[in-house]
Amino acid sequence: MRTLIVKGEKITSANIRTGESAPEKHAGAELAKYLSKFGIGAGDGLTFDIRIDPALPQEGYVIRPDDRKITIHGGGGRGVIYGAYGFLTHYAGTRFFMPGLEKLGEGDVTVDHEYSFSPVLECRQSDWKCGNSDVDWCVKNGINARPIPEEMGSYRWYADGLGGHSMARLTGTDQGKEQPCLSDPEVLKKVIAGVRAALRKDPDARIVSVSQNDNANYCKCPKCAAVDAEEGSPAGSMIRFVNAVADDIAKDYPDVVVDTFAYWYTRKPPKITKPRPNVSVRLCSIECSFAHPLADRTCTQNASFYEDLLGWSRICSRIYIWDYVTDFCRYIPPFPNFHVLRDNMRFFAEHGARGMYPEGNYTSPKSGEFGELRCYLLAQLMMDPYMSANEYFGLMDEFLEAYYGAGWRYIRAFIDWTCAEAAGCRQMSCWEEPFSIIPAEAYLAMEETINAWWDKAEAMAGDRVEAVRRSRIQWRYIRLMLHPDPEEGKRLMETLEREQIQMTEWWGNDWTRIHDDLKESFPENSSEKE
User: Fold this and answer.
1) 3-class secondary structure for 108-137?
2) Contact 57/82 with Cβ under 8 angstroms?
3) Is 330 found in the same domain as 258?
4) Are residues 258 and 289 in the same domain?
5) Residue numbers of the domain that contains 500
6) Same domain? 123 vs 37
7) Residue 198 sits in the same domain as residue 267
8) 425 and 503 housed in the same domain
9) How far apart are CA 16 and CA 175, in angstroms?
10) Which of 145, 163, 218, 528 could be joined to 125 by an S-S link, Cβ 3.0–4.6 Å?
11) With a threshold of 0.90, does the pTM exceed it?
């Protein structure tokens, strides 16, 4: 049983009053549920007043303690719900790590100061299945770019079917092979008609994407080529086209934003044309090195991205970011980027980003690496990209202890070592080979120590041992690369199937297409026998 102390007075019971809306009632019910877990039941000891206050930012909230009363007011439905969870996290130390894994906090719950918060980023998207598949977890951790029920503060972002790479659907072009001609007036008419149809079908949507197909075969006809030459980038013809779409729908859909990409060949901003106020540009970091902060201009891959972000921030009032935070062709071996995640999120926020999508492992329900940790930390960073290093690593340690048990420090040692090694590599793309990040020689030199770390973490894990074993799969993968062993390879295959862990974005666990990394450990599936 915990003691609630408000303005110096000990409280043993609470009466929760809310407004009449479904989100206000949900916020009150959630707060009552957690207070009861602390041993604070219903009664007249203290009154919580939970209400929407339109004067506050839509997702912001303020918590004010007074004599025998605490007000929790939010600017909208999600704001008041965030306020209830904010009370629990800020004053009581409650943490919502993963679905089914929460920490209530310890000691007295002392409420002696006012606390207010409003998220920095307006759009916060996650696709890590380990967390994002659970709407309750998403709301508790501030993920809002997904369908959310009315009682949880309902929201819709992208119009149904018109998220990323939408030109294929809008124009009938081949997603992987071609792009439409953006100088063709018939293409513009077709896209406008498609956008309007999508908005009529999904009237609650606030963003509609008009974005390039996922290939580099953009139109080079004389008209498109002339525009791109004048603008100094193929983004010129793209922004002019998207502006035309945005102008067409602006009167009928004044609250809708038209989203497009600065991706691959369109990443460099145009010299002349500026996006309309109702256009957002989603800048993609796909060519970058994720072993180094994206603001690191000494890194060749990141220096040009830095300049492009600066360029877009000068001409666009609504920048969204599509970042890449895992290895898409190798989900399982270590992808040591924990030392740059905080720096990168702050970098984006400082340069005008209003939305974030750190794309991760969206195909696998569980991770054989550190997907769960990354999912949790990214959610916290999207809510507060300006948190300090101490706050960030404090959240990491809290998660590690709760998720892996008493031996968590050995896992932290492995994370710290891999991140330190990766920081020295030249390039760490989101399709990187494991030994290009950390050389085999470095792993061999540390093999005995790393084995001991995982052994100790597993021995001390208690009821969290399965979580340790799942994350240890990344080390099993590396050891198979160092010491090919068909029997261990077979055991690894069986483990992945049992745990529902996929190895790749595209192929799942199709062992006939396994990486060259492990061919010697799966000789029956080698390319010579396919």
Assistant:
1) CEEECCCEEECCCCCEECCCCHHHHCCHHH
2) no
3) no
4) no
5) 119-155+285-530
6) no
7) yes
8) yes
9) 53
10) 145
11) yes
> Whose structure tokens read 């483990």?
495
**Cβ–Cβ under 8 Å, residues 359 and 127:** yes
Strand partners, 311: none
Interatomic CA distance for residues 362 and 235, integer angstroms: 28
Same domain for 48 and 84? yes
User: Domain holding 49: CATH number?
Assistant: 3.30.379.10
Distance CA 517, CA 130 (A): 26
The one-digit pLDDT tens for each residue of the chain (530 residues) are 788 999 999 999 999 999 999 999 999 999 999 999 999 999 999 999 999 999 999 999 999 999 899 999 999 999 999 999 999 999 999 999 999 999 999 999 999 999 999 999 999 999 999 999 999 999 999 999 888 999 999 876 788 878 889 999 999 999 999 999 999 999 999 999 999 999 999 988 889 999 999 999 999 999 999 999 999 999 999 999 999 999 999 999 999 999 999 999 999 999 999 999 999 999 999 999 999 999 999 998 899 999 999 999 999 999 999 999 999 989 999 999 999 999 999 999 999 999 999 999 999 889 999 999 999 999 999 999 999 999 999 999 999 999 999 999 999 999 999 999 999 888 899 999 999 999 999 999 999 999 999 999 999 999 999 999 999 999 999 999 999 999 999 999 999 999 989 998 887 777 677 778 888 888 765 544 34
Task: State phi, psi for 169 to the nearest 5 degrees.
Answer: -70, -40
Q: Among 117, 146, 181, identify where a domain stops.
A: 117
The reply to whether 449 and 398 lie within a common domain is: yes
Is 105 in contact with 93 (CB distance < 8 Å)?
yes
What's the number of domains the chain is made of? 3
Give the integer Cα–Cα distance in Å for 283 and 356: 10
| Nearest-angstrom CA–CA distance, 432 and 330 | 8
DSSP code per residue over 442-494: HHHHHHHHHHHHHHHHHHT-GGGHHHHHHHHHHHHHHHHHHS--HHHHHHHHH
Q: Which of 117, 147, 173 is the last residue of a domain?
A: 117
Centroid of chain to Cα 217:
29
Is residue 103 within 8 Å of 93, Cβ to Cβ? yes
Q: What is the DSSP string of 256-297?
A: -EEEEEE-GGG-SPPSS----TTEEEEEE-TTS-TTS-TT-T
How far from 233 is each of 166, 236, 283, CA to CA, in Å? 21, 6, 14
